[in-house]
């Protein structure tokens, strides 16, 4: 690490009163790549401060420096004006810094309570810790079962662990990295209530999100990064979501062009009364699930986290085999008993929800990750495998087509920011030109421009004749790209409703357990689009 210049014991604020925490002249280099370049940031008590930027702008690197996961190459961090050293997260927590991670830092085989205990004082364990978890859950509406193993939880429930684990440390600064990316509208509303309470208690919150309407609602100050540098600051409430996005990317964000008059083709993906028992104690059984997607169609699957989305994806991809071959068909062929590679050979592609570890091997390079999903389906070489050189070419095609920001020519997947890894994984599958694409949470954690690019790529793939099934907790996304929507609730799938004939409110009622699957728009009360969606008790 480059030697940092000598600094005074205190740093004067750029403006106004002394901030609770500050970062001044922060530079972070990884070899020849500069992730942060002279960044200044001041965070004050009693405010929710947004940190905005496109994927790869340097936001996560800066947050890791503030949380003690990385040391800056140059620059200093201050607490109440005093320069502090943050050699590790424990030192950051002692100063009152807590962080809610975008990528969950949880141990799969441990329970909720055991994961929380890892960062708590040793004397707080067992029943005492379970009581604290229950009290915080009751106080803030963040309910958890301390005895459940993490591997059995949905992404939304895992996010709840991160938030509870952070709040149990009674932090004075809470850093939130894409906290609503896997939450339903109802869960997000509950989180916003929690954040407002924390602000009123005098805590500082640093909020990173690509959902700009959330930023405009919660924050009165924003710092904007681009290319590792601070390029501006603003009051988000005085901006529009479009103007904020333009500041982040340096140009106007293009709208998604909807499909124009694409007639559906023949049926390409079909599930016939699929029933599967829950794969684990806390998983969800699928009951009598029937769906059909034709070429040129996009079917959206909405639902609150933990209602069977992971189980449905596993059944479609072949990670879980169906009880009969005919329960799942691809282009008319029964595939219920086939594994994922056999289904890929029939022209199907799959994008799972969890990109790190499920969609990509974090320690492997991008070209090796490209190889993993193609080796069994590419034209055979004399060794029976796709050549690594071809994989490098494929990885480069994905990187160029989906604007994947990275350090180095072929870095490990785990070194990419979350949004850039998402772009790589989605691009890898779309460029395979599949006849059937099943994609779970397509734009989780990506910026506005990248989300528009991914959604347009999905629409364009359908226009080329693919049958696409999109599982998403983002209702705005489903209404933008899907021709029809079904709702998965407690392992049961509602009949598909044409998007043009329903509303967010109608879909929200189905997500909450309403049995009126086909409620027409006119029969529903008018509700504001941001109204919370009811959360069933089992989702807690």
TrEMBL record:
PROSITE patterns registered for this protein in UniProt: ABC_TRANSPORTER_1, ABC_TRANSPORTER_2
Record-stated family: Belongs to the ABC transporter superfamily.
Gene Ontology molecular function: any one: ATP hydrolysis activity
Record key words, sorted: ATP-binding, Nucleotide-binding, Sugar transport, Transport
A Pfam family recorded for this sequence: ABC_tran
SUPFAM superfamilies: P-loop containing nucleoside triphosphate hydrolases
Domain annotation ABC transporter: ranges: 21-252, 269-515
The keyword Nucleotide-binding appears for this protein: yes
Domain of life (superkingdom): Bacteria
Xref: InterPro entries: AAA+_ATPase, ABC_carbohydrate_import_ATPase, ABC_transporter-like_ATP-bd, ABC_transporter-like_CS, P-loop_NTPase
Gene3D superfamilies tied to this protein: P-loop containing nucleotide triphosphate hydrolases (3.40.50.300)
Full protein name: ABC transporter ATP-binding protein
């Amino acid at each position: 690490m480059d030697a940092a210049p000598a600094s005074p014991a205190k740093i004067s604020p750029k403006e106004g009163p002394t901030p609770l925490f500050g970062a001044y002249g922060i530079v972070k280099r990884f070899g020849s790549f500069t992730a942060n370049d002279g960044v200044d940031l001041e965070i004050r008590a009693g405010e929710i401060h947004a940190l905005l930027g496109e994927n790869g702008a340097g936001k996560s690197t800066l947050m890791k420096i503030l949380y003690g996961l990385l040391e800056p190459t140059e620059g200093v961090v201050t607490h109440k004006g005093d320069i502090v050293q943050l050699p590790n997260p424990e030192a950051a927590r002692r100063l009152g810094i807590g962080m809610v991670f975008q990528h969950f830092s949880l141990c799969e085989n441990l329970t909720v309570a055991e994961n929380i205990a890892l960062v708590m004082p040793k004397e707080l364990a067992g029943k005492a810790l379970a009581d604290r978890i229950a009290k915080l859950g009751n106080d803030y509406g963040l309910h958890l079962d301390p005895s459940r193993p993490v591997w059995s939880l949905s992404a939304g429930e895992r996010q709840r662990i991160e938030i509870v684990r952070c709040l149990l440390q009674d932090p004075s600064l809470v850093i939130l990295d894409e906290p609503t990316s896997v939450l339903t509208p109802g869960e997000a509303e509950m989180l916003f209530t929690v954040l407002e309470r924390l602000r009123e208690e005098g805590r500082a919150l640093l909020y990173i999100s690509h959902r700009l309407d959330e930023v405009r609602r919660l924050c009165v100050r924003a710092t904007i990064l681009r290319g590792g540098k601070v390029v501006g600051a603003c009051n988000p409430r005085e901006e529009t979501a479009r103007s904020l996005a333009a500041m982040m990317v340096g140009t106007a964000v293009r709208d998604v062009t909807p499909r124009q008059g694409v007639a559906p083709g023949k049926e390409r993906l079909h599930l016939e009364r699929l029933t599967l028992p829950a794969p684990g104690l806390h998983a969800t059984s699928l009951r009598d699930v029937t769906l059909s997607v034709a070429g040129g169609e996009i079917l959206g699957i909405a639902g609150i986290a933990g209602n069977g989305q992971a189980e449905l994806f596993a059944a479609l991809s072949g990670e879980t085999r169906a009880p009969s071959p005919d329960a799942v068909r691809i282009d008319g062929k029964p595939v219920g008993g086939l594994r994922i590679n056999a289904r890929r050979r029939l022209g199907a592609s799959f994008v799972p929800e969890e990109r790190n570890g499920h969609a990509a091997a974090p320690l492997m390079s991008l070209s090796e990750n490209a190889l993993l999903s193609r080796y069994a389906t590419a034209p055979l070489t004399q060794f029976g495998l796709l050549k690594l050189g071809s994989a490098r070419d494929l990885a480069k095609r994905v990187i160029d087509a989906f604007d994947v920001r990275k350090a180095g020519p072929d870095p490990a997947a785990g070194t990419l920011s979350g949004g850039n890894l998402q772009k790589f994984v989605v691009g890898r599958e779309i460029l395979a030109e599949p006849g059937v694409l099943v994609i779970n949470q397509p734009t989780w954690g990506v910026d506005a421009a990248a989300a528009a690019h991914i959604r347009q790529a999905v629409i364009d793939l359908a226009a080329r004749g693919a049958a696409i099934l999109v599982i998403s907790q983002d209702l705005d996304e489903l209404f933008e790209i899907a021709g029809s929507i079904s709702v998965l609730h407690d392992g049961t799938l509602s009949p598909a409703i044409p998007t043009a004939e329903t509303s967010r409110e109608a879909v929200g009622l189905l997500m909450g357990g309403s049995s009126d699957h086909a409620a027409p728009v006119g029969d529903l009360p008018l509700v504001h689009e941001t109204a919370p969606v009811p959360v069933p008790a089992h989702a807690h």
